Amino acid sequence: MTAPRTAAFIDGIAFWSPRLPGWDVASAVLAGRAAAPVQAARRPAPELLPPTERRRAPDTVALAIEVAARACDAAAAAPAALASVFATTHADLAITDYLCSNLLGAPQLTSPTQFHNSVHNAAAGYWCIATGSHAPYTTVSVAEHTFGAGLVEALTQLSATARPVLFVAYDAQASGTLASLVTSSGLLGTALVLSPSRGPSTAASIEWSIACENPPRLTPCEDEHAQLVAGNAMAPCLPLFEALARRSGRVALGAGPRLALRIAIRGP
User: Fold this and answer.
1) 265 in a domain, yes or no?
2) Share of residues in the chain with pLDDT > 90 (%)
3) Which of 116, 129, 192, 266: CA 20 to 30 A from 86?
4) 43 within a domain of the structure (yes/no)
5) Contact of 86 with 121, CB cutoff 8 Å
């Protein structure tokens, strides 16, 4: 069973991983116009954060704020005015592992700063503080379906409010004992500014629908591109960004155990 299609527009696109540090680089590689850089970047340095906070911010916060800011720049959108949806499968696994180990060994020495960075909405909170935003935000986690489910949430808000929505999706490296329980490596962050109408910054127009299938028939990404994100938990986003890089295509993304988000993409 498939719901009726709904139109939307993408005004800003951002992408960051160590091998594809920025949408300009990523779009050329994902469209087959260029080879990926050999040298990997360590992590982004979001200019939106003051220098001290930029150095202290955990990887997940730096990553999420970098792609959110770049998507807003591309869309010529005021960050503080946008409602936002943040999606992350695991939030910050390194900090969670640190806290669990600390609670076992020396609970009295637990860092308050590390604790507040461990919560699932930490990146969204930093974003609102950095931009001075009082707009509503939502955080989403749906295991391996997180990217698709988060995008469904953002598109649903867009349809309900007829106002632009910022969608940010990211995941980081698993470490310590938790790495034996969950799989994620490297850094991968993406962001989209979604709009209800075409504008001067529109990068793509889309039609989307939800299909109830058991199991969902999903679009695979190309093998060489999957290798570039090295098993990051947010890798299910790749088929969408491959299509966006080519400015056309149809993709089906997992949005739940029996749900597929189907998207048809056209150029501006």
Assistant:
1) no
2) 64
3) 266
4) yes
5) yes
